[in-house]
Design a protein that fits this description.
The complex is a heterodimer of chains A (304) and B (257). Chain A has 304 residues and is of the alpha/beta class. Chain A contains ten helices and twelve strands. Classes of the chains: A alpha/beta (304), B mainly alpha (257).
Chain lengths: 304, 257
Amino acid sequence: MSNEYANPRNCQQCGAQIALQESFCGSCGAPYNQSSLMERTRLVSPKTNGNGVEMVRAEKIVKRFGSLTVLYGIDLSVKRGQVVVIIGPSGSGKTTLLRCINHLEKIDDGRIYIEGQLIGYREQNGRLVEDSEANIARIRAQIGFVFQRFNLFPHMTALENVIEAPIHVLHQSRAAVTERAMVLLDKVGLVEKAHVYPHKLSGGQQQRVAIARALAMNPKLMLFDEATSALDPELVGEVLKVMRQLAEEGMTMVVVTHEMGFAREVADHVIFMDKAVIVEQGSPEQIFDNPENERTRIFLGTIL
Amino acid sequence: MFRWDVVWHFLFQDPNLLFLNAAWVTLWLSVVSQTCGVILGLFLALMRTSRFPVLSWFARGYIWFFRGSPLLVQVLLLWDGLPKIFPSLLLPDFACILVAFSLNEGAYMSEIIRAAITSVDAGQMEAAKSLGMRYPLAMRRIVLPQAARVIVPPLGNEFNNMLKTTSIASVIGLQELTGSAEIYGSQAFVIFELLIVATFYYLVLTTLWGYIQSWIENRLDPDRLTTKIDLGDKKSFTERLVGFGGSRTGGTLVSGR
C-alpha cells in the first residue's frame, strides 16, 4: 500500500510520534496543528514520471440501446496526467461513453484499453468475449467514478462510505484506511461531517464525500459524470473547487460536464459530442474561441 | 354442556403445563421454519434475479410449485406420499413438518426479498461496482442492508401467519397447540373447551410478536435516527430496557434522503 497520504504524524515541536486520535503531543504537550499536515498532504500522489503514457484508449466504440445507437465509432485517447472534458447536448452519448470506460455499460463493438489492458472483454480466437467479473472488478478498482446522483451508501456515515472499499476490496487495515480517509475528508472540507449519515448532508457535501470515497482507492484515473448537474447552483462551486485541485495535482481525469467555465479553465483537451459521434475536439481555446464546426458553434452559442 | 371449569383448569391450574408446552412446540416450529424459510428465500431471490437462466428458471419453477399448491397437500405428500415412492425418504414427523413449512415459506419469502432487493436504487450497485466490488460483496455490504428495511414489515406478517399455520402439524398428529386440543379434547369430549384454551395461547403469541415487530420497525425508522442525533446522548426507554443500541447501531439500516 502506498503511504503517500498517511504521512506519519510527528509533533512540530519535538518530533515525537502522535497517535491518530490525539490532538496534543504525548511527550512535550504541544498542540498538534492539523492543518499543517493537511496542507502538506496532496489528494493525489505526485506523478513524477510517466506523463504522456496512454491511460485510456478507445477504438471505434459502438453502443446501442435496442435500435437506438448512442455511440457510433468513438475514438478516444487520454494520456496520463491529462484532463479531458467532454461537452455536448443532452442525449449526445457523453455519459454513456464515460460509463463504457469502466464497463458499467457493455459495448456492442470496438475496444477500450486502460493502460494497454482491454477492459470488459478478452480476446478469444479473434473474437471478444466478456471478461470474468473478477478481472473487471480488478480494473474498476483502479478507476474512480463520480456519479451525477452521488450514490453514497445511505446506511453508512461519510467516513464509513470512504473506508468501505479500501477495507473490503483492497483488504487494507482499518486503522491505516481510516487515517487516510480522515485526511481526504479534510481535504474536501468535510472532516467535521465524518460521522454524519448522507441524508443529513447537502448535495454538495454528499458529492465531495463521493469524491473522497473514489480517491480512497488511490485511483489512476477519475471519471466524473456530470458531477455538479444535480446540485443547487450555490453548491456547484465547492465541488468544482475540489475537482480543480485534483486536476492541478496531476490526476488523470475524464470529465463530462455542462460547466463551460470549468472546462475552459481546467481542460487540457475538450471533446464536443453530438448525436453519438465526436463532432470536434481540441484545446479549450480552439473549441471555445474558434469552433470550426457549425454544430459546436450552435451548441456553445445556446449555452454560453 | 360447555365446561368452563375445564377451560379454567387448562389455562391456570394445570400441573402438567400441557398447553404451555404445546405453545412452546408451536413457537419453536414457527421460529425454525421461518428462519429456514428466510434463508432459503434469500437464496431463491438471488437465483431469481440471477443473470444465469438456469438458476432463474429453477427459482421460478420452485416458487410456482410451492405457492401454487396448498401447504396441507405439501405436508401430506412429504409425510405419506414420497416414502411410498422412495422408501428412504421416510422422515420423522417433526422433520416432515419443518421441511414442508420451510420449503413453503421459502417460496413466499423469496418474493418478498426479491421485491426488497429490486426496491434498492440501481445506483447503489453501480457505485459498489465502480469501487471494484464484486457482486457477492456488493450484495452483502451495500444492497441487502438497505433491502432489510423493506423486508421487515412483510416478514412480520409472514411470521404472524406462520404461528397459526403450524396448526396444520396437528393433521399428522404433532402435539402443538391445535393438535393437543384435539387429542386431549377427544379423549374427554372437551374439544371446544380445549380449542378455546389453544386460541388463548395463539393470541398471546401473536400479540407478543406484534410488540416485537413494532419495536424492530421502530428501530429501523430513519426519522427516529434523526431525532436521536438531535437528542445527543439521551437514551430511549427501550435502549435502557434492553441495554444496547444507540445512534450508531440504530442507523446502520437507515435509508437515505
